[in-house]
Design a protein that fits this description.
This protein has 358 residues and is mainly alpha-helical. It has one domain. It contains 14 helices and two strands. It has a two-stranded antiparallel sheet.
């Protein structure tokens, strides 16, 4: 039953988000919610935003539907409805955080907030998720203050990482879907049905949005989407239990999120470093992301997106292996991840025929 239910959640969220994206696209055009061409941005034509609103509405729909369904099918899944509804206020606060993250991004899409105003907003959204939604890192730390601050900073980091990653058609949603799939595997291994359901809804919604966002994109998610996506991945990475079933020891799998997110983390760190090195504000966007650098080497938009997808999938598969490896194997997974990032670095710095090199 679990497999059938999982497929249903995946397909339902995909169809709902695809339909909502198609519906919102003409509305965004009518309201003037569009991305205009800019010298420091990738897009060279007017494209409607609003994809983030579709993702939000799809996720809220799936969360509400799942909350109602627990009353009927919970016992068959080994879930106690009374226990679930006793803590439903935490889920509702998570939904509030989702709406807040998307709303903050939408405000930025419309009014172009300063980087520092966005950062303050992200901290508020993260605090809601952590303090009221019980989205809190645990690992081996028992101090609530430390885990609370760490959780807030992790959420803000991922909101910015995926905001940075939303710099080319299909990139943010595709990478987030792959990372969420890796986290789904961890949740499934830990028997976390509710976290797995949220992961499936996230994956389905992202795939539904990708129907119109793959190159050449017909609609963008905007900051309303990228901040929401970062928040969702952060919630999944925090609420998933990694280490108690690890065959290789009690702690290796806690590295799964870092390994799975290695590629977007690489982009975030290198872009921030480049901007600081050049004396620029590291929080103001430009075209120095590694996807842009790959494209300047002669790759098409689709080839660039696929390269990033495959690199993320490679590191993600290594992350899954952390459940089954020895200490030596865990070290090898880390080395493999570094080597994959090294290949990306070589590709993006290659000066071949596309740049007139030899």
């Amino acid at each position: 039953m679990l497999i059938a239910l999982g497929i249903l959640i995946l397909l339902a969220s995909l169809v709902v988000c695809a339909a909502l994206t198609a519906m919102i696209r003409p509305i965004a055009l009518r309201w003037g919610l569009v991305s205009h061409p800019r010298e420091d941005r990738y897009g060279k034509k007017v494209v409607p935003l609003g994809g983030g609103i579709a993702i939000l509405l799809a996720m809220v729909t799936m969360v509400l539907a799942g909350s109602v369904a627990i009353a009927f099918i919970g016992p068959r899944l080994g879930l106690e409805p009374k226990a679930f509804y006793a803590r439903i206020h935490e889920l509702l606060w998570i939904v509030v955080a989702m709406a807040g993250g998307s709303g903050l991004g939408l405000w930025d899409d419309r009014k172009a907030l300063s980087p520092y105003a966005k950062l303050v907003g992200q901290l508020v959204v993260a605090a809601i998720a952590v303090l009221l939604g019980a989205v809190r890192l645990k690992f081996f730390i028992s101090n609530d203050l430390v885990t609370g601050i760490g959780s807030i900073l992790w959420i803000v980091l991922l909101m910015n990482i995926f905001n940075f990653l939303d710099n080319m058609d299909g990139l943010c949603a595709g990478v987030a879907a792959i990372v969420s799939s890796i986290l789904l595997v961890a949740a499934a291994r830990s028997g976390q049905i509710l976290v797995g359901g949220l992961a499936l809804a996230t994956i389905g919604s992202l795939l539904g949005f990708l129907v119109q966002n793959l190159p050449p994109a017909k609609v963008f998610m905007g900051d309303a989407g990228s901040m929401l996506v970062g928040l969702l991945v952060a919630i999944l990475s925090i609420r998933t239990t990694y280490y108690h079933q690890a065959a290789s020891g009690p702690w290796y799998p806690v590295l799964m999120p870092m390994i799975a997110l290695a590629v977007p983390l690489y982009d975030f760190v290198t872009v921030m470093a480049l901007r600081i090195w050049q004396g620029k504000n590291p929080l103001i966007g430009d075209m120095q992301h590694f996807s842009h650098r790959l494209k300047r080497r002669g790759l098409t938009d689709m080839q660039t997106a696929l390269t990033v997808y495959l690199a993320t999938l490679c590191t993600g598969l290594g992350a899954v292996c952390l459940y089954q490896v020895s200490t030596t194997g865990a070290i090898l997974v880390g080395i493999q991840t570094i080597l994959i990032l090294g290949i990306i670095a070589i590709l993006e710095t290659y000066t071949g025929p596309a740049n007139g090199g030899r």
